[in-house]
Amino acid sequence: MLITAPHAQGPGADVFTGEIAWKVAQATGAYALVATVSRRAKLEDGNPADYNREWARNTPFRRRIDELIKRYGVRFIIDVHGMESDPVRPDVDLGTLGGRSAKGKLVSKIVKRLEEAGFDVGFEQEFQGGDILEYHCDGERVQGVQLELSEELRELGEYRAIQAVLVVVNTVLEEV
Ligand SMILES: [Zn+2]
């Protein structure tokens, strides 16, 4: 299990996603990979240092994901992001690239468990997932989901974002 937080670093950070990934990893034994560079910084080729984009596949962050899959047996990726608050947005928007990055049965179970834990869950309401899922998850041998966590869940002192990611980890561990 790997938890990624590619937009953890400001300016322009998905605030607290690095801390969330780190804490859930510590609690569960999952790996965590947290960006230490802002997505507004530039890569050597001039592209933005957004690790969830196709052009970033050859960065150390993305090569490390490959290594964790190939050498450390990672079979599931939870890519953690933060979305700005909006009344029409759910607490958690779950992305699976239209169903390609994870098996439907498992995704349904994740949604059900999150709802049972009291979260308002959207399924690809706005966010389908990015290149981390696209490139590293085939939906069979390596599965993955993107979690967009609302701002309310990530406020200082708020534990619900951590709880949401824990629910996903625990549901996946039952199945994978
Ligand atoms: Zn993000």
Automatic annotation (TrEMBL):
Please give one Pfam family short name: FGase
InterPro entries hit by this protein? N-FG_amidohydro
Q: What is this protein called?
A: Uncharacterized conserved protein
- Name the source organism: Methanopyrus kandleri (strain AV19 / DSM 6324 / JCM 9639 / NBRC 100938)
